[in-house]
Amino acid sequence: AQSVAQPEDQVNVAEGNPLTVKCTYSVSGNPYLFWYVQYPNRGLQFLLKYITGDNLVKGSYGFEAEFNKSQTSFHLKKPSALVSDSALYFCAVRDLGAGSYQLTFGKGTKLSVIP
Amino acid sequence: DGGITQSPKYLFRKEGQNVTLSCEQNLNHDAMYWYRQDPGQGLRLIYYSQIVNDFQKGDIAEGYSVSREKKESFPLTVTSAQKNPTAFYLCASSVLQGSTEAFFGQGTRLTVV
Prior knowledge:
The complex is a heterodimer. Chain A is mostly beta strands. In chain A, 0% of the residues lie in helices and 52% in strands. In chain A, strands 2, 5, 6, 10, 11 and 12 form a six-stranded mixed β-sheet that branches. A four-stranded antiparallel β-sheet of chain A has the order 3-9-8-7, with no helix packed on it. Chain B is mainly β. Chain A binds chain B through residues 6, 9, 32, 34, 36, 41-46, 49, 51, 90, 94, 96, 100-108, and chain B through 4, 6, 31, 33, 35, 40-43, 45, 48, 50, 56, 58, 88, 90, 92, 94, 96, 98-99, 101-107, 109.
């Protein structure tokens, strides 16, 4: 069965500093990995995805993520945090080796950017 | 505008009543999903459907039912058998291709009163 772990419930970072939100995954085959952001009382917005190829993927709003197969990780990063980045972030995985298009999400990490 | 529409945004239900949450998409997506979100528990899959007239249980299907009579629509019924239905419910859709992301509606907040 596929699974995702986000080890930090909350991450605090000062505005202008780099940020990292961690994600590790477990799948039986090759993973398709996604990051989403959620603002209060709203749906999820897609940020970026890793399918294949370059391990560093770039997405919306200056976010990027690094895929590391040996560590089964897909950490979200941004070089310089903004107050407006404060939100709930979810990592998700899809494992086609499992035979379905089911998306499995982590529990989410609340990012707070302090002015 | 293409997208996913969930209605209503807020819903109040008395204990013992069934209630149906609407989800409609005009993205021509084959796959549709229902997730439940509770604080600190992330998103948990209730049901998903990859084709009309077919759907599969997710991790927490007990007390819920769905139908997929049209490609565009995937309504979720929260039955009286669901012991703790108060939550934020999210509907999503995607094409049937593993590399594509899912698109989400704005959610329905259900409160049992």
